[in-house]
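Field guide to reading this record: the first block holds the primary sequence, the second block holds the structure written as discrete tokens, and the final block holds curator observations. Each block starts with its own label. This record concerns DedA family protein, catalogued under organism Streptomyces vulcanius.

BLOCK 1 — SEQUENCE
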Amino acid sequence: MPDWIDLTESLTASPALYAVLIAVSLLDSFLPLVPSEPVVILAGIAGATGQTNIVLVIAATTVGAFLGDLVPYSIGRLMGERVLKRLPVGTKRRTAYDWFERELELRGGFVLVSTRFIPVGRYLATGTAGVVGYPLRRFMLYVAISTSTWSAYTALSGYLGGVFFQENTLLAVAVGVGLAFAVTGAVQFSRYIRRRKNRR
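BLOCK 2 — STRUCTURE
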């Protein structure tokens, strides 16, 4: 597996960087070991110094993430019947499956958009959406929203860090990563509050 961060740094001033962004964001949609966030943040920092075009960084990352989310969804659709056969009625796994199916039906947009900001959550949500047979058109609409917002906030985290800390690249990366974690934490906190309200 290539060192994506080193590859990104070596291609910062090259148009090939956008192909790397498409590839890394696509693979990260279903392979947890591929580090898309640090790569996109580095590209955002490069945008602040004029080495890359921040709009193209966001666009390339969005395209890759969107295509990547279709992979687990498609696998889920193909494996749906087999998965159901292994989930007998009354088991905990079947209960969890039924709950997720209801959640997608009731608030599919919220589930698909919010889980995009949670590394493990994005794989589970898109794959399960395919298994439960969530409508493709609605899935693509919400995934388009989730991937574009995720790409924008990740790239702009790096960009803002680069703007304010151009003399210290390490500090810019730290600020970018910190902003990314802050947004992710806010999303998770809002989900926690929402669950508490639902329980009441």
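BLOCK 3 — OBSERVATIONS
The helical segments are 4-10, 16-27, 36-48, 54-85, 92-115, 119-131, 136-164, 169-199.
The chain has a mean pLDDT of 81.
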